[in-house]
Amino acid sequence: MIWFSKQQALSTSTKLAKFRLRQGFTVSDFAELIRVNPSIYFMGLYSNIVPAIQALRVIMGCEHLVIRILAKSRRLRLSEKTIESKRKVFRSFGWTESDIATLSSSFPPVFGLTEATIKKKLDFFMNKLGYKPSFLSKRYNLLTYSLEKRILPRHKTLIVLKEKGFIKMDYLLESSVSMTESRFLKKFVLPFKEVHGVYSQHAGISLELLTLGSSETNSKAA
């Protein structure tokens, strides 16, 4: 743990107070920023904090969005270049400025995702599933989960269940993605031997464990 001397703490607090006034933050806004990001005391004021805020102001073009993003974000190591490069990825998939603003205001960590990750997820949801930007921008949780470890295994499982008539054809993937692993297994995998192999293959869970879990579920039901 890093400790400040009284003099260092006073000096840092004075600098941050002056910074708050220059940047136009209210006391409550700045208090929330420090509460969420206590590490701000250890960041360079002009090497990290100011560039991040200036970049967000230029890119977002709206003060209240900047404050919301800063209040929700755990990191301030952003730059105008990195943010803009990721915004270009969204625009290449047909996202409007309004779509991007909606997503980033509710899910600030989106700018922390790599460009490759953003492309991969947008390609899956938009090109393979046909989701529209207006739909995805309001359902940021779909972009927070691992594509390989969570989304694809559940997607493949639901497809088989629909084909075999075990669930309705209009059941949405987003409804299952937010479920805990245990709940998803209990509801969509363990009761149906037809999907054990599919889920095992894509989720990396041994078929033996699924079979054992299915037996235990059936015995409890009996």
TrEMBL record:
GO terms for molecular function: nucleic acid binding. Keywords: Transcription, Transcription regulation, Transcription termination, Transit peptide. It comes from the Eukaryota. One of its GO terms (biological process) is DNA-templated transcription termination. The lineage of its organism: Eukaryota, Viridiplantae, Streptophyta, Embryophyta, Tracheophyta. The keyword Membrane does not apply. PANTHER family: CGI-12 PROTEIN-RELATED (PTHR13068), TRANSCRIPTION TERMINATION FACTOR MTERF2, CHLOROPLASTIC-LIKE (PTHR13068:SF231). This is Uncharacterized protein. InterPro entries: MTERF, MTERF_sf. Belongs to the mTERF family.
